[in-house]
TrEMBL record:
Ranges for domain Gfo/Idh/MocA-like oxidoreductase N-terminal: 7-123
Protein name listed in UniProt: Gfo/Idh/MocA family oxidoreductase
One GO MF term attached to the UniProt entry: nucleotide binding
Gene source species: Vibrio tetraodonis subsp. pristinus
Family membership: Belongs to the Gfo/Idh/MocA family.
InterPro entries xref list: Gfo/Idh/MocA-like_OxRdtase_N, Gfo/Idh/MocA_domain, NAD(P)-bd_dom_sf
Keywords of the record: Oxidoreductase
Keyword Oxidoreductase: yes
Superkingdom field: Bacteria
Pfam family, one: GFO_IDH_MocA
Amino acid sequence: MSGHRVSWAIAGLGKIAHRFAEDLTKHVANGYLYAVASRSEKRSQMFAEHHDAEKAYASYQDLANDPNVDAVYIATIHPFHYDMAKLFLSAGKHVLVEKPAFTTVKDWDEMQNLASEKEVLLIEAMKSVAFPAYQSLRQFIRQNHIEITSIEAAFGNWHEFDTKQQIFNPDLCGGATLDVGVYPLWLYVDICHLTGSDVFPPKVNYWQDNPESEVDETIEFSFKQGIKGNIKASITQNLERSAIILGPDIKIIIHEKWWNPIKIDVFYKGEHRVISPAITGGGFEHEATHISELIINNEISSPLITAKTSRKVIDIMEQTLRSQGLGKLLARAD
């Protein structure tokens, strides 16, 4: 670290990496972009120049060997997360890994154990949880001991069928569950954990709009026990962009895009309040600031983006795909 600022590196330099770098460099006071890496020297150099990073590597191993790197944001597609996380955790780096962090509980547990052994952070990059509006909502629910009875949330956008795209490629862990189902499942499980509710196995239905498809294109998770949940995800359909959370005395509307929670309406016991704190960046600054603070304070777990919730969501996705005969989508890339 440089003073009280965490030196960040980014591994994998696609579109989401640019968005993370933009917020990190412009809106995070306790961290800065020090290094970037990809398998292309040209791409790494161009990315570093664009975002003013000091180091540009054409090897992930070289990045792992750099003693000045505190934390690595893994922004590759999820079939490569396991090997990347293992590399950087083994080198003693804190790791923020894009969602889904891994595709199986076995991989999650193995990497969590490695992080614990190295006394570093392993956190799934579920940035929506770190948004100020969502944190205020969680605090309101907790402080008022609010009972939640149902959650309805979806994440879905239409994409033209093309097996060259990762989301339609069965050999690259494609499909709606892993690509976008992780978002609403995280919301559901997080609220269950917040309110002390058990998470029971859901009833699952999936379908395909393209007959030649080998992945789950649209999927619905129906939680019938505990907190009722209607959770949907799709890579071929445009789905509702607001989330609705209900209880005996409360109605909560997280407005679109609910996974970037900026405005939340809360109707509670006849009163209406709006949660809408000002934000300055694109949303990645909240998780980067939070994790940088944890590192500065020598913490090895997050109370916001919890390992317990990540593990449970991975478990639901894994069991769902295996039960639907889609276990091949869980395989890591070679």
